[in-house]
């Protein structure tokens, strides 16, 4: 078996080398886009190994994150803390904890097929507005064929992932939610890792990298072609089929403008629970929000309260003006506006203007 597995490992390494063609086969990439593309593949592999090896046991579920500060998927939200758990529709589970100071909290049952066809269709959703929570912030949510607590999601056989979205207006300063999950049924004792197990995990991990990268590469090419310097509504069912929250309007776009220019985005603000706007790179990873102002939300943006609207200034380098976010110097990439539980969906007006013009106006 050791000899056989050595071949499996060699096959994995050879296939990983071929995964690089996802980047090398692209035409007309800037140096930044190409370098970040290879980094993106290493990040996806890290996430895939966490999901498929370290947290693969649905009988003994645990949470991990498929998007965080240094590994990102599909327009990840800088205001979010994401939790994922691999589950099995034949079991029943209890999710419990405390909501902390979260602004928006949702739980979504998904059929994760990123490694197959790039989809992650919703099997059931519930958010904080629909849940009973105790005065101290504690909650319980049951997942299964029958409810075992006041808060309940029916767990269909096809569901294989639970996604928890915690959204914070000022994430670094708020008390985060605490969320746990346990299997309510009888679990088999954990067993030692076998060569067959590891072979399967490695194959699934590479399939996840290929499927995920392929899905969002197709998206960004569509946005570059048809959403350039614009934020149209787009097909919401398409975005939600890839794991989106059904309570969110997603307005995806693609920015591309010169160093001497800036993007001015003006929009009315609908009645909604929360909103935010963010910049991403070519691979639809949010930019480095740890160190740079790359997004704004309903609490951090300065609004025109007289007409309930906001003006956002996107530039390549930092400007001395309010609501300014930066591309970190890259000339192009994706961008996204979210309206969470909005009563309607305003479409922003976007104009490209000269930096000189901005300086004259600001003088």
UniProtKB/TrEMBL annotation:
**Superkingdom field:** Bacteria
Name by which UniProt lists this protein: DUF1214 domain-containing protein
């Amino acid at each position: 078996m050791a000899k056989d597995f050595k071949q499996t490992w060699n096959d994995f390494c050879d296939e990983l080398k071929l995964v690089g063609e996802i980047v090398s086969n692209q035409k007309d990439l800037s140096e930044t886009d190409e370098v970040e593309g290879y980094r993106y593949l290493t990040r996806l592999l890290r996430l895939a190994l966490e999901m498929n090896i370290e947290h693969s046991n649905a009988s003994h579920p645990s949470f991990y994150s498929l998007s965080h500060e240094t590994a990102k998927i599909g327009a990840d939200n800088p205001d979010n803390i994401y939790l994922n758990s691999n589950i099995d529709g034949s079991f029943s589970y209890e999710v419990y904890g405390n909501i902390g100071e979260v602004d928006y909290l949702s739980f979504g049952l998904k059929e994760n097929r990123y490694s197959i066809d790039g989809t992650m269709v919703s099997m059931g959703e519930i958010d904080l507005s629909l849940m009973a929570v105790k005065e101290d912030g504690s909650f319980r949510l049951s997942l299964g064929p029958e409810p075992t607590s006041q808060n309940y999601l029916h767990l269909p056989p096809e569901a294989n992932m639970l996604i928890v979205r915690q959204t914070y207006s000022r994430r670094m300063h708020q008390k985060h939610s605490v969320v746990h999950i346990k299997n309510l049924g009888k679990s088999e004792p954990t067993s030692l890792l076998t060569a067959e197990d590891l072979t399967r995990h490695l194959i699934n991990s590479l399939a996840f990298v290929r499927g995920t990268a392929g899905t969002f590469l197709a998206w960004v090419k569509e946005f570059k072609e048809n959403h350039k310097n614009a934020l149209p509504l787009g097909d919401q069912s398409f975005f939600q089929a890839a794991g989106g929250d059904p309570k969110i309007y997603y307005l995806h776009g693609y920015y591309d403008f010169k160093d001497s220019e800036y993007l001015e985005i003006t929009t009315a603000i609908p009645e909604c629970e929360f909103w935010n706007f963010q910049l991403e790179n070519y691979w639809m990873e949010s930019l480095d929000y740890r160190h740079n102002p790359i997004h704004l939300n309903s609490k951090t943006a300065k609004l025109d309260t007289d007409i309930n609207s906001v003006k956002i200034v996107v530039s390549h380098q930092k400007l001395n003006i309010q609501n300014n976010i930066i591309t970190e110097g890259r000339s192009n990439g994706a961008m996204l506006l979210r309206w969470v539980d909005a009563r309607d969906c305003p479409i922003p007006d976007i104009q490209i203007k000269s930096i000189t013009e901005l300086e004259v106006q600001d003088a």
